[in-house]
Specification:
Helix 4 runs antiparallel to helix 5 and helix 5 packs parallel to helix 6. With 222 residues, the chain is α/β, with parallel strands linked by helices. The chain is built from seven helices and ten strands.
């Protein structure tokens, strides 16, 4: 299998001297195309920092991240923003839906920012798979938490990104809805050949992934 994401020697240090915090301390990670990987660790272990580095939302103190053939550090801020929109789908714990836009408008919003036309057939297929067909004209505040998270998943998939990064995507959901959402992520990963990297502190959720990577004190454990 080819690797789609490769992090090499990633370090993220805050502060200096005795007060220095090593959020990441030399992380090497390789993700294969189509793989569903869970990154697990306790609070403060560095997993959110790692996800932000992998998504180009933050720059490392040292080390590099490569997605496909692109070295993130080689992009200027504008190129990095465009690259993220086209190549990376983000799913956040708090959904980050725009309250004044309908579900459909939320899903196509990142695509319209690039002046692209959304693939309506593809998005309708995603919406059907996620059980959202009846909710596309609804505003987010008319949806349950699980439905809002599904809308966030649909938005992440809509631009057909190379990779999806999910930050505690079930953190605000009850256990049954959590299982449903992870099941849907797995299904969309297979259906659309998506690569998914998900961080979670929940071992049961992590068990549903193809591979589990454990991080503690900014280092990946064997």
């Amino acid at each position: 299998m080819e690797s789609i994401l490769k992090a090499t020697g990633l370090k993220k240090y805050y502060g200096k001297g005795d007060t220095m915090v090593k959020a990441l301390d030399g992380v090497d990670l390789e993700i294969e195309r189509g793989e569903f990987t869970a990154i697990i660790g306790t609070s403060g272990s560095g997993k959110s920092t790692l996800l932000n580095m992998l998504g180009g939302l933050d720059t490392p103190t040292e080390g590099s991240v490569r997605i496909g053939g692109t070295e993130l550090a080689a992009l200027n801020p504008e190129q990095a923003t465009i690259f993220r929109r086209k190549q990376i789908g983000f799913i956040f714990q708090n959904y980050n839906l725009v309250p004044v836009l309908t579900v459909w408008e939320n899903i196509v919003f990142p695509i319209s920012l690039d002046g692209q036309k959304p693939d309506k057939k593809f998005i309708q297929k995603v919406a059907a798979l996620l059980g959202l067909e009846e909710k596309l004209d609804s505003l987010p505040n008319h949806l349950s938490g699980g439905q809002q998270q599904r809308a966030a998943i649909a938005r992440a998939l809509a631009s057909k990104p190379s990779i999806i990064l999910a930050d505690e995507p079930t953190g605000n959901l009850d256990s049954k809805t959590s299982d449903d959402v992870i099941g849907l992520l797995k299904m969309t990963s297979r259906e659309f050949h998506q690569t998914i990297v998900m961080i979670t502190h929940n071992p049961e959720i992590a068990q549903m992934a193809d591979r589990i990577v454990r991080i503690e004190d900014g280092k990946i454990m064997a």
